[in-house]
TrEMBL record:
GO MF, one annotated term: RNA binding
PANTHER family: HETEROGENEOUS NUCLEAR RIBONUCLEOPROTEIN, RNA-BINDING RALY-LIKE PROTEIN-RELATED
Domain of life where this protein originates: Eukaryota
Keyword RNA-binding found: yes
Pfam families per record: RRM_1 (PF00076)
Protein name per the record: RRM domain-containing protein
Record organism: Onychostoma macrolepis
Entry GO terms, CC: nucleus
Occurrences of domain RRM (ranges): 21-92
InterPro entries linked: Nucleotide-bd_a/b_plait_sf (IPR012677), RBD_domain_sf (IPR035979), RRM_dom (IPR000504), RRM_HNRPC/RALY_subfam (IPR051186)
Record keywords, A-Z: Coiled coil, RNA-binding
Membership in a protein family: Belongs to the RRM HNRPC family. RALY subfamily.
């Protein structure tokens, strides 16, 4: 055992409280950036309860909504692995009509 906390691969897309505490990370170079990288970067904003990585994007589920807002403010437009990230809440993506940042599974 390494002493690391394991996070779930599941991010709840139907519970309103969970939706508000989730962060979408788009334009992600998933050929280079892995789940552990995402967890390390985003853990500084609060407790992560789930993280799912898909081709080109990821979701991070926080324990509370405030942590998600801090992550969006701190990481949106960050350059990672040569690509500028789009970091937002799925709720805001839906508000702006950005269907590509909603869960596909």
């Amino acid at each position: 055992m390494t002493g690391k906390t394991q996070t779930s691969n599941i991010t709840n897309k139907t519970d309103p409280r969970s939706l508000n505490s989730r962060v979408f990370i788009g334009n992600l170079n998933t050929a280079v950036v892995k789940k552990t990288d995402i967890e390390l970067i985003f853990a500084k904003y609060g407790k992560i309860t789930g993280c799912s990585v898909h081709k080109g994007f990821a979701f991070v589920q926080y324990a509370c909504e405030r942590n998600a807002r801090l992550a969006v403010a701190g990481e949106n437009t960050r350059v990672l692995a040569g690509q500028t990230l789009v970091v937002n809440t799925p709720v805001m993506c839906q508000w702006y009509g950005l269907e590509w940042c909603m869960p596909v599974c």
